[in-house]
Design brief:
mainly alpha; elongated
Length: 187
């Protein structure tokens, strides 16, 4: 027996896409919550001396970097419905945004690597530098997203541009959670 909701969804493909997106967002939120609880559960362990090897740091950062860049465009493509004309205008703008985004993330990961390498000897200046670097990254990303929003609006219109930035921001929040969960808390 079909419910009214099921009939509506079958006859309106956009409703089905929105339903899939809601489930995707719910799944992303659940993953983030699990990660937050894992981070808070590991806080006591992180308070102890941490001396990761340079190889493990490099491996972790390389994994985060490749995951971040490889999946981002694929997720965007699956969650944006565009005509061929919109797509031809969207992707060059988004690729330019991704290039600038990648630069900011690379700088952040290098800073994290320096912080982890100096963790055992971290002084007040090092602790302050870490937090200021995180805040600077946030500010640079917000500025970049605002610029990208304007550029995408010109290319594909406001609603599609806003949706793209919304999806990108959610992806960034999830990836930032993944990155910061790997960083030992300042002691």
């Amino acid at each position: 027996m079909l419910t009214a909701s099921a009939i509506w969804t079958e006859t309106h493909p956009r409703a089905r896409l929105e339903e899939i997106m809601r489930y995707s967002v719910a799944l992303l939120a659940a993953v983030c919550l699990v990660a937050v609880f894992r981070v808070s559960g590991n806080a006591a362990q992180q308070a102890q001396a941490v001396s990761p090897t340079p190889a493990s740091i490099d491996e972790m950062l390389a994994a985060v970097r490749s995951d971040l860049m490889a999946t981002r465009a694929d997720i965007m493509a699956k969650n944006l419905t565009m005509t061929a004309e919109q797509s031809a205008k969207f992707w060059p703008v988004y690729d330019a945004y991704q290039k600038e985004h990648r630069t900011i993330i690379e700088e952040q990961l290098k800073g994290v690597q320096r912080y982890i390498a100096a963790f055992d000897t971290l002084d007040d200046a090092g602790a302050l530098a870490l937090i200021k670097a995180h805040l600077d990254r946030d500010e640079r990303m917000n500025t970049l997203r605002q610029k990208a929003l304007v550029d995408l609006q010109r290319a594909v219109g406001t609603r599609l541009a806003a949706r793209a930035i919304q999806i990108d921001r959610r992806l960034s929040l999830a990836h930032q959670l993944e990155i910061v969960s790997k960083i030992p808390l300042i002691r």
